[in-house]
Each structure stands twice: as structure tokens, then as C-alpha cells.
Amino acid sequence: MLFSKPGKYSHIVVFLGNPGLKYAMTRHNAGFITGDAFAKKHGVKIDRLKYHALTGETKIGGGTVFLMKPQTFMNESGTAVSEAMKFFKVPLENVIVVSDDVTLDLGRLRVRRSGSAGGHNGLKDIIAKCGGEGFPRVKVGVGKPEFDMIDWVLSTFHDKDAETILEAADRAAEAVESIIMNGVDKTMNDYNR
Questions:
Q1: pLDDT band at 5; cut points 50, 70, 90
Q2: What pLDDT is attached to residue 193?
Q3: What is the DSSP string of 31-77?
Q4: Residues catalogued as catalytic
Q5: Cα Rg, the chain, nearest whole Å
Q6: Among 53, 83, 121, 133, which residue's Cβ finds the most Cβ atoms within 10 Å?
């Protein structure tokens, strides 16, 4: 079987974050943390460098899903996503993006069918480079800023907060799977609490 065959993947799942150890457990990396939880749950690795991202794949339901952790830094996430979308011919509505959200309490999830970037630079770049806002997303609450926004999203989770975000990442990974298996509406009903 040929690798990277167009039409091979039913969905692309994009876990947003910043590459490098210094960002590993920061608030802005809630997407990467969810990607790690998702990979562990499915017994796969997201570690092959393609399309400016660490990538992997897994089977969900009847389809094969392409997994991405862009390595372009948050503000250029759309570069990686648009390349993979074009190559694999995956429509925007089958691209699921997992990101942090500073408007949600720590550990809370919000699933959306589509929408604006809401000030999130990674989502903004994907919207700009991938053809619009019409992609589902799973937002992971990292808490409302307690100090300067940039310092807040780059601050590290510690102690109880670290436990909370790891639990939220497990639930967010389940929500991604639910979107693929059950659709966005059912997933919103089940996870938006």
C-alpha cells in the first residue's frame, strides 16, 4: 500500500500547541497535551515529521484518521493544516481542531461546529489559510487570565492544575472520537456542560 495516498483519510485531527520542551506543559499547549492523551488511548504515536507537523494515524469507526501536532508555532498553524488538507483532499468540515481556551474555566470543554477564532492566533491562522471557519473544534479551558495574556498562556500547569488539565485532555480526546463516530451535535450535547 502506498503511503500518503490522497483520499486515504476520512478526517484530520489537529492538536494545537508550540513545539519544544519549554512549552510542554503550558496553557497554550492544551491541544498538544490532548494529542498525547489521544495517542496513548489509541496506542499510536504522533511522531513522523510531515507537512510541518508531527503526524500519525489511527482507525476510528470505519475510517482512517490523520493526526497532526503542527511544529510551526501557534501563529502559523494554518500552514501545516492547509498542506495536509490539500494533499489528502479532506474537506474543511472533516478537520477537527483541538485548542486551549482562556474564556473557559480550567478543565471545562466546549465543542463547536464552527465559529470565529475568538482571539486565538492558531485558530485565526487556520481560518485564514484553510478556507474559512467551517471546521469543528474542541476547546479545552485553561482558566481566565490572572495576569498578562501572553505570560498567562505560556505559564506552566503545576500540582492540582496539572492533574485537572490531564483529566480534561482525556475527556477532550474522547470528544474528538465522538465527533468522528457520532457527529458534532451529539458530541456537543454530551460534552458541553
A1: low
A2: 76
A3: HHHHHHHHHHHHT----EEETTEEEEEEEETTEEEEEEEE-S-GGGH
A4: 28
A5: 15
A6: 53
* Pairing label, strands 11-15, 95-101: parallel
Please give the grid coordinates belonging to residue 44.
499510536
* Cβ atoms within 10 Å, residue 133: 16
106 and 161 Cβ atoms separated by less than 8 Å: yes
Structure confidence by residue, pLDDT tens digits, 151-184: 999 999 999 999 999 999 999 999 999 999 999 9
In DSSP terms, 116 is beta-bridged to none
What are the residue boundaries of the structural domains of the chain, listed by start?
A: 11-191
What is the tens place of the pLDDT at every residue in 35-93?
A: 999 999 999 999 999 999 999 999 998 899 999 999 999 999 999 999 999 999 999 99
